[in-house]
């Protein structure tokens, strides 16, 4: 008697997600289709459907992956600081020291409309931010300043990711330093720029 052995899947999900991001960056989220992603990845539509049954499931996976990558960056930067007060918010600041890559900005911008229309995705992000804020507050000797620093940092990141505004260097680095000073509760009085320097 002959037994058939099922072939292992050889298509990596990350390849499909990479293709989806490429389509989003080039054509926008509205033009993201399973056919377009299959064509971009050089695979059959059936292979895309095997992992992602719908366009919405694919968009959700792209957003979740991007968000997970950001969280991993924050985790690594926080861990690098060790057991210090305000490690979580200081880790977020350190991880933000590099401006976002152009592809990250493009993906974030195009997927905002999808996020706005998906209550489940918004709920996932809300829960993640809720955990993050609680963690920052719990680690901070001055929870009020930790919250303010978080809001300032997220404001900067949001403006950049949405392509609304980006500060040039060295201004951007100075802003991050000032946010870091907020954490300690003692921001310096005025920068050289404000003093006319």
From TrEMBL:
InterPro entries reported in the protein's UniProt record: Homeodomain-like_sf, HTH-type_TetR-like_transc_reg, HTH_TetR, TetR_CgmR_C
Domain HTH tetR-type: 10-70
Protein name: TetR/AcrR family transcriptional regulator
DNA-binding region per Swiss-Prot/TrEMBL record: 33-52
Transmembrane residue ranges: none
PROSITE patterns per UniProt: HTH_TETR_2 (PS50977)
Swiss-Prot/TrEMBL keywords: DNA-binding, Transcription, Transcription regulation
Top-level taxon: Bacteria
């Amino acid at each position: 008697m002959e037994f058939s052995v099922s072939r292992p899947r050889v298509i990596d999900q990350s390849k499909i997600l990479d293709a989806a991001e490429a389509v989003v960056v080039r054509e926008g989220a509205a033009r993201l289709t399973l056919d377009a992603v299959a064509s971009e990845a050089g695979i059959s539509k059936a292979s895309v459907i095997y992992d992602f049954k719908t366009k919405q499931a694919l968009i959700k996976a792209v957003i979740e992956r991007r968000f997970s990558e950001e969280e991993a960056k924050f985790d690594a930067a926080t861990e690098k600081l060790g057991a210090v007060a305000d490690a979580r918010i200081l880790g977020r600041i350190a991880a933000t020291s590099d401006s976002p890559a152009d592809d990250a900005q493009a993906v974030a911008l195009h997927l905002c409309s999808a996020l706005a229309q998906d209550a489940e995705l918004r709920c996932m992000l809300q829960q993640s931010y809720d955990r993050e804020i609680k963690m920052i507050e719990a680690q901070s000797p001055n929870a009020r300043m930790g919250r303010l620093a978080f809001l300032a940092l997220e404001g900067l990141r949001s403006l950049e990711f949405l392509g609304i505004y980006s500060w040039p260097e060295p201004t951007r680095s100075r802003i991050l330093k000032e946010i870091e000073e907020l954490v300690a509760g003692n921001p310096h009085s005025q920068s050289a720029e404000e003093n006319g320097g």
